[in-house]
Amino acid sequence: MQSEFAAERQMLFEYLTTDALLGKFFEPFIFENVPALNTTPATVFLNEVANCDIYLGIFGEKYGYEDADGVSPTEREYDCASEQYKTRLIYIKDIKTRDEKETILIKKIEKDVVRKSFANIDELKTEVYASLIRYLEEKEIIHSFPFDATLNRTATLDDIDEKKVKKFITRARIKRSFNFDESADYRMVLSHLDLIAGERVTNAAILLFGKKPQKFMITSSVRCCQFYGSKTERPIPSYHVYEGDVFELIDQAVSFVMSRVDVSVGGREKSVVADVQPELPLLAVTEAIVNAICHRDYTSNASVQIMLFNNRLEIWNPGQLPYGLTVEMLKIEHPSRPANPLLARPMYLYGSIENVGTGTEMIIQKCLEKGLREPVFKQDLDFVTTIWRKEKNGEKMEEADDLMKTVQENQHVTPHVTPHVTPHVTPHVEELIKVLNEEMSRSEIQAIIKLSDRENFRLNYLQPALKFGLIEMTIPDKPKSVFQKYRLTEKGRDLKKLLNNLR
Predict the structure, then answer these.
(1) How confident is the model at residue 501 (pLDDT cuts 50, 70, 90)?
(2) In the chain, where the domains are located
(3) Which has the least CB within 10 A, 94, 194, 311, 466?
(4) How far apart are CA 23 and CA 121, in angstroms?
(5) Which residues pair with 488 in a beta bridge?
(6) Mean pLDDT across the stretch 351-359?
(7) Residues 6 or more apart from 445 whose CB is under 8 A from it?
(8) Any idea which of 21-35, 206-220, 266-280, 472-486 has the lowest mean pLDDT?
(9) What is 427-501's CATH topology?
(10) What rounded mean pLDDT belongs to the chain?
């Protein structure tokens, strides 16, 4: 509420604007600084929320003005930030009494995000500073190197597979005339590629040549799902989580797709071997998968997800387009701006990608040559590439979906949760869902999954599971109660059944 926290709002605005570090990265907005405009305040509020990266909310005693539907502008703002997946930093003032609707709003917020409390304006300033510094660190914004060029905290040269480096050399010599041969010391090759510093290795080195890359970056795996219809509904005829280095991930993901699409077999007029043509162009599928794996945001808790429907192939990449590059620019010649430059260079030498920004153009070209609809590129919370399949004998997708419903009814399956419905459910959350039985305390769950780090458990297991509505507290009004336990929701139970079926 503006009037209740007028001093706090102005203090934070001036602080964020003038601080030597935060002022470089954040441009705060408060309504008090808006000039006279021919529009409603609510429109200004919601437009600013839609355009922001971080929503910072302060909640205290008063619920504030209510519109015709009985909802305050503050609650409208929070709901808008939630719907658009904004980062939400919430601070609640320690007071004894609140408006009833303010209490209800705070309880709703506490189910979604971890909030911080403060007693006075100085504590608020400290909490906001800590939150924003952590945000910059998590996003690697205040790191001196990109994520792929950063030295991994725990990995060493012992975690690099020398045989993989040798295989890379052989391939790179053929594809790009790489100026090393197989007799070269693999450490010299890694140094030449800027992938090591002494005995320490970069994140890119682990992703490219690691013995077990997912040991260090668990969400670097690729999830592949096939659906009978055009919607994310069960039963799922095929679901795989692939692990390995980036080259192995590409091969496995491409094989998953191409082994499940239709093929046409021609005659032997030109050769003794019959001409076999897959329904989708191999080069387009490969390029789309390579782009997702190479250019994804590896700081995200999500994995690359590939979903094959009866009418399309969708490839979900947890990441954003580089600054200045738009979806429309992908359809024409555009500069190459790899999100992970140290990862991209060896992939280029290996022949997996080109360095000239022509990948998306090639995807479009190959699909059109095949007589398919033009692929769609969409930037939302994730970057999504859609490659369309041909309709089979004029079959309508609605009819295929009806058939899908019949299959579900015959198998007595109720479609609640699929990997796409919860696209950001990480392996950590899956592990939590699998072990949670009846009502269990935090310490009981940690003991079963053999995790001693309480903060790691809270941030990577508990908090996301609560956010997705997969688990719930037994004492929601007292989140920090020593008697607090957790149990699966209906959605969580459905996901647990699905995970058990996929073993």
Answers:
(1) low
(2) 6-138, 147-216, 223-235+248-335+345-410, 427-501
(3) 94
(4) 19
(5) 471
(6) 71
(7) 432, 435, 436, 457, 461, 486
(8) 266-280
(9) Arc Repressor Mutant, subunit A (1.10.10)
(10) 84
